[in-house]
Amino acid sequence: MQNLDLGGASLDCIKIRGKTESLMHFMAYKARSDVYAIAHTHSKFATSFSMANCQVKCNFFL
């Protein structure tokens, strides 16, 4: 996991390479003032569904 500020600077003591998806997260924060956190995973199940061209039901928890 990588902790970044909204400018993309690392908040961790250890520098981790690879911020390829950070921009997508920053755009979500900018577009939605009600978003305070994003949990982004690459679950093997979601990846398998995607590769099989199956839809994954989206659940929103408010």
How would you sum up this structure, described in words?
- With 62 residues, the protein is mainly α.
- The protein has two helices and no strands.
- It has helices at residues 22-31, 44-51.
- The radius of gyration is 14 Å and the shape is extended.
- The two termini are 24 Å apart.
- The mean pLDDT is 76.
End-to-end separation in angstroms reads 24 Å
Please tally the β strands and state the result.
0
Mean pLDDT: 76
- Which parts are unreliable, with pLDDT below 50 for 5 consecutive residues or more? none
Question: Treating each run of at least 4 consecutive H or I residues as one helix, how many helices?
Answer: 2
Summarize it.
The protein has 62 residues and is mostly helical. Helix content is 29%, strand content 0%.
What is the strand and helix layout of this fold?
Elements: H1 22-31, H2 44-51
Please describe the structure with a list of short key phrases separated by commas or semicolons:
2 helices, single chain, 62 residues, 0% strand, mainly alpha, extended
